[in-house]
């Protein structure tokens, strides 16, 4: 049996994959800036510092699986395709984080200017990656999908759920940090900056790339539908 994949499908998956790659790079840059990582990455990062055998990527995968289980419980349908697709996405994303952390392991910013530069560059990459990831509407990453599911099932505004989740993760990260190190690690001014900045960067790239998305991702636009048999 052959699975027919159109050229447009291939382009959509390509946009999505490139977006995931850029998000992981942005996550690593924000983290390596050492001013405080993003809210969603704060718990995995602190865990990776506290547990010797646990990498940043593996801790991220663990958190994403927790998000996935929450969705399965709320939706009462663990075999839902949109949920199952989050498993390979989470694995790839976590693997990319570890690869990029490894390649940038030599880089330690020694001045505040370089730290802020890495932080801002990381936020730009995060915004661009998120824009590319959500544009094809293939599958949402667990951290975003769990917010959608909770908001829908519990009938709570998306923004409210997102804020509650972010604050909860930061509190957990702070608690773990104080418990393991008697100091604050992984949470700082960079956490606040990324929280305030990334959303605006996403909006900026959505506007700048609107024509590209319309051309390559919208069904009603003419495009040669070459089919790839796999």
TrEMBL record:
Membrane-spanning parts: 12-33, 53-75, 87-107, 113-132, 163-181, 187-205
Presence of the UniProt keyword Transmembrane helix in the record: yes
Protein name: Uncharacterized BCR, YitT family COG1284
Alphabetic keyword roster: Membrane, Transmembrane, Transmembrane helix
One Pfam entry name: DUF6198
Species per Swiss-Prot/TrEMBL record: [Pasteurella] mairii
Listed InterPro entries: YczE/YyaS-like
Keyword Nucleus attached: no
